[in-house]
Amino acid sequence: TSQTLDISVGGMTCASCVARVERALAQVPGVRSATVNLATESARVVAAPGDDVDARLRRAVRTAGYEPRTAA
Ligand code: 9UX
């Protein structure tokens, strides 16, 4: 089974930003797919069940230089 998480991501302005965020999210343990939508400033992540996945994803977004916001 998997969980789907939506995260609002601020600070992205171009396609390279999108690629950076997708890469950062994909590296979080348990992530099966990460898709970022620039127009909606959000990321949809499918991940294995696990502790604190949402917090780990948010940390990855911030470390990559963008702003995780409220759950989308
Ligand atoms: Mo280009 Mo997106 O510097 O920040 S990667 S606008």
UniProtKB/TrEMBL annotation:
Organism: Variovorax guangxiensis
Location relative to the cell: Cell membrane
Family: Belongs to the cation transport ATPase (P-type) (TC 3.A.3) family. Type IB subfamily.
Residue ranges occupied by any HMA domain in the UniProt entry: 3-69
Identification of the protein by name: P-type Cu(+) transporter
Top-level taxon in the UniProt lineage: Bacteria
